[in-house]
TrEMBL record:
Official protein name in the record: DNA polymerase III subunit epsilon
Annotated coiled-coil segments of the chain: none
Chain ranges of the Exonuclease domain: 4-170
PANTHER family noted in UniProt: DNA POLYMERASE III SUBUNIT EPSILON, EXONUCLEASE
SMART domains for the chain: EXOIII
Gene3D superfamilies: Ribonuclease H-like superfamily/Ribonuclease H (3.30.420.10)
Length: 215
């Protein structure tokens, strides 16, 4: 089977996993990048404060998302881009939690995507001093991208997985996971829970805009 998957990256407004404020996506078909997309998101109500530490990382401010789609409105766009693909993300636990929690607080049905973590793949594939996304991307020749821009981060993640699959001699994303002894995760679909305002605890996030087609 061809190496088909979608790489995804979320950035958050604050310490709440539900506070998605940007998403980046990269579609891979047959081991080649064929499309990228990214856009800003209005975080769900109660999770929409922008902490200065997050804005300092990704540059997104509350006023930047005023005209952006809400989580519920743009979830359709994510689903349309991803289709039935396996998702990949660098530190996938973070991004899958953002997907799941944002859906929980907005009472949206979260697609039960399967996913593979490129951070885990990198640790099994490369000998590096650091496995942060820029370091791993540099190891595969993807250099000088704007880290913490969600679209750029998703593209970097895709290039890591393409290179790792080539090194492992596999052409299917789940075969790559199996070859490295990694689990293919799946997002559970729990019942929606009430939304609670975000606590005053800072956390990380990052940014993205723009929609770009790749020939």
């Amino acid at each position: 089977m061809p190496l088909d998957f979608t790489a995804i990256d979320f950035e958050t407004a604050n310490s709440s996993s539900a506070s998605a404020c940007a998403v980046g996506l990269t579609r891979v078909r047959g081991g080649e990048v064929v499309a990228t997309a990214g856009w800003l998101i209005q975080p769900p109500p109660g999770h929409d404060r922008f902490f200065s530490i997050n804005t300092g990382i990704h540059g997104i401010r509350a006023e930047d998302v005023v005209d952006a789609k809400t989580w519920s409105a743009q979830l359709v766009d994510i689903a349309a881009f991803v289709g039935d693909d396996v998702l990949v993300a660098h530190n996938a636990g973070f991004d899958m939690t953002v997907l799941r929690r944002a859906c929980e607080v907005t009472a949206d049905a979260c697609p039960p995507y399967r996913y593979v973590c490129s951070l885990q793949v990198a640790r099994k594939t490369y000998e590096l001093d650091s496995y942060r996304l820029p370091s791993v991307a540099a190891a595969v020749g993807f250099l000088d991208f704007p880290h913490h821009d969600a679209t750029a981060d998703a593209l970097a993640c895709a290039h890591i997985m393409i290179d790792a699959a080539a090194r492992a001699g596999v052409d299917e994303i789940t075969d790559l996971a199996a070859a490295l002894g990694l689990r293919v995760g799946q997002i559970p679909t729990p019942e929606p829970v009430p939304s609670f305002p975000v606590a005053e605890v800072p956390a990380a996030g990052a940014a993205a805009v723009a929609v770009v087609a790749v020939a």
